[in-house]
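SEQUENCE-TO-STRUCTURE ENTRY
===========================
What this section holds: a protein sequence and its matching fold, both as plain text.
Question of interest: how does this chain fold, as expressed in backbone structure tokens?
***
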Amino acid sequence: MKTIKTEIKWAVIFVIMTFAWLLLELLTGLHGKYIDKHEIVTNFIAIPAIAVYVFALLDKRKNIYNGVMNYKQGFISGLIITGIITVFSPLTQYISSTIITPAYFTNVINYSVETGKMTRDAAEDFFNLKNYIIQGLIGAPVMGIVTTAVVAFFVKSKN
């Protein structure tokens, strides 16, 4: 457990960052009044998400590898973080959808139907907790692996 303490810490920080982002979206009206902008703005979560991975791997390099970390070590560390985030993804989505922003699915379904982007049945099939949990279980590892591969390259030691 001691060997992955850093990864656990940063995975928890990532989950907290995700909740903070969703709360910010909610408070700025992106889950209601400005839901038409949500589709674009929500993608900017990539900035703090990548930053968390950078800080995590820098922390691992400095405090576990004494400032010397190769690409493989960084990549493995990032994969562990990604794995933990993925495991907690369904719970994160459940909390997001039931506590932080319980009206989101209703609002986005109504918006999609009113703007003609989807039929009601298609919108209800897409915008629901089960589908978002599945998307999270696929998206978290895919994005985590890609992020890890890039960040580990830039964070590895130069020597």
User: Anything to note?
Assistant: Residues 71-100 form the longest helix (30 residues).
